[in-house]
Backbone:
């Protein structure tokens, strides 16, 4: 059975991942079981996703009751779960508004577009370039791989998108030198998670914030991996006493259901008016409150 499944996968699934020879069939908390009955402890929580563990009873219940109540709604209408989730995220972060989508890459796409649109709205369309960090990771779509500061991610997909500049992480002077009149934003993981785990030096993110403020450049934190409690605080930026203008979330936001969110402060978020950006499935992000009786619990 196990080897049959692996052979079948080799025949029919795109070869984009090198897989371990394990067929997982069940999960509970942080324990996973394979088809041969072996148990594993999931130290990586999927890939930084299952913060509340596998097959969490409250989430399973919320998902099941939502599926039987209201299945999909586009962004052309209001729904209570979507509003409650946005409100919870706003109340617990620096941000004033949320845009929902389906993945981290899409959240970063939204952030990249919003940063460009913000300056475009102000009549400064020449400000479109985004500075990102060497060894960063921002996703696999064309814009987000272009933003990523790792050549191996881009190899074979050139030409990458115009408008990204890369500087070393933890080097405020490199940032100061790189910013010019064409820069609209700096995009950074507060703790780098894919080019090795690299923490910011003491004072580095504060210096980045200061340089952005001095030059009028927007600061985007990619918290797709660090967000939702994975560093001990709800968002990693809370450790460093620095708030971004835009933040992106995904991965652990719904413990494994596909969701991304792009959060922004009001004066930036307002650059996205009706018709400027969209997501079909983004309309039905959110579940009925999985903990009835407690308002403002995060839905999924
Ligand atoms: C920091 C960071 N940004 C973006 C992404 C892309 O997220 P997704 O795979 O959901 O598109 C990832 C995924 O590993 C990530 O770690």
Residues:
């Amino acid at each position: 059975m196990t080897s049959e499944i692996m052979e079948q996968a080799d025949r029919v699934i795109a070869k984009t991942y090198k897989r371990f020879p394990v067929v997982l069939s069940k999960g509970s908390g942080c324990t996973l079981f394979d088809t041969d009955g072996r148990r594993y402890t999931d130290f990586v929580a999927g890939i930084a996703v299952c913060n509340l563990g596998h097959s969490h009873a409250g989430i399973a219940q919320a998902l099941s009751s939502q599926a039987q109540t209201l299945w999909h709604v586009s962004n052309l209408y209001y729904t209570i779960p979507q509003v409650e989730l946005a409100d919870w995220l706003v109340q617990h972060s620096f941000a004033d508004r949320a845009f929902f989508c389906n993945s981290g890459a899409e959240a970063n796409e939204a952030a990249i577009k919003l940063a460009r649109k913000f300056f475009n709205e102000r009549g400064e369309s020449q400000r479109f370039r985004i500075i990102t960090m060497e060894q960063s990771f921002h996703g696999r779509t064309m814009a987000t791989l272009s933003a990523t500061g790792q050549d191996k991610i881009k190899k074979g997909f050139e030409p990458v998108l115009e408008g990204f500049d890369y500087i070393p992480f933890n080097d405020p002077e490199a940032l100061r030198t790189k910013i010019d009149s064409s820069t609209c934003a700096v995009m950074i993981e507060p703790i780098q998670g894919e080019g090795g785990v690299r923490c910011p030096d003491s004072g580095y993110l504060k210096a980045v914030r200061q340089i952005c403020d001095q030059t009028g450049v927007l600061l985007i934190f990619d918290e797709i991996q660090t967000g939702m409690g994975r560093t001990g605080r709800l968002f990693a930026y809370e450790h460093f006493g620095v708030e971004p203008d835009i933040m992106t979330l995904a991965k652990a936001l719904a413990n494994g259901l596909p969701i991304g969110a792009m959060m922004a402060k009001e004066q930036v978020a307002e650059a996205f008016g009706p018709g400027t950006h969209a997501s079909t499935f983004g309309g039905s992000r959110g579940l009925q409150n999985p903990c009835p009786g407690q308002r403002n619990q995060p839905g999924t």
Observations:
- The longest strand covers residues 183-188.
